[in-house]
Amino acid sequence: MKLLGRADSLNVRKVLWAVSELGTSIDREDYGGPFGKNDTPEYLKMNPNGLVPTLVDGETAIWESNTIIRYLAAVTPNDGFFGRDAASAAQISQWMDWQLTSLNPHMQVLFAQIVKLGDKRNEKVVQDNTTTINKLLNEVLAKSLPDQGFLTGSKVTAGDVCVGVMLHRYVSLLGASGLADRVIAYHRALADRLGFKTYVAIGKP
């Protein structure tokens, strides 16, 4: 099994953190960004989007980082990382989808404005998307978190990994000011995880 994608890609970092939580390891090869190779016919046959990461397991190629995480949880013995039954799996999956459909669109805009455009950024666009993300984190995430622990209980799951990488990107770009205390505590708890320290907190948002 091999993961194709550069180590500083947010979605690659997400998968690598999940691998750590699953207590296993995976080979990785640099693709995308300065390494290229993601626009070759061979790669596009595996992943028609030409993006990273792609997971190759024998004759099977899987793209979309959240789907890769679900697959890894299915083929790796684990203690409920993606739930123990249909109900708990659905509760975890809904947070993975929330990260992808609710947080990610605004975070992509924010990242592009702050990191890629820098001094040429549109401050109104930054403010509008910051306000929306703050509302999602403080009104949806904060109110859904238990008093202690993680999204669905005392153990980190795939949902926490997916939400956690996005939350960390936001904090890295704008700091934690304005976030609810429970969200800040949640971020700190995730930051204590070995996989987070190794693959997510690498000095880049």
TrEMBL record:
The gene is gstB_1. Pfam families: GST_N. GO terms for molecular function: transferase activity. Belongs to the GST superfamily. It comes from Afipia felis (Cat scratch disease bacillus). This is Glutathione S-transferase GstB. PANTHER family: DISULFIDE-BOND OXIDOREDUCTASE YFCG (PTHR44051:SF19), GLUTATHIONE S-TRANSFERASE-RELATED (PTHR44051). InterPro entries: Glutathione-S-Trfase_C-like, Glutathione-S-Trfase_C_sf, Glutathione_S-Trfase, Glutathione_S-Trfase_N, Thioredoxin-like_sf. The keyword Cell wall biogenesis/degradation does not apply.
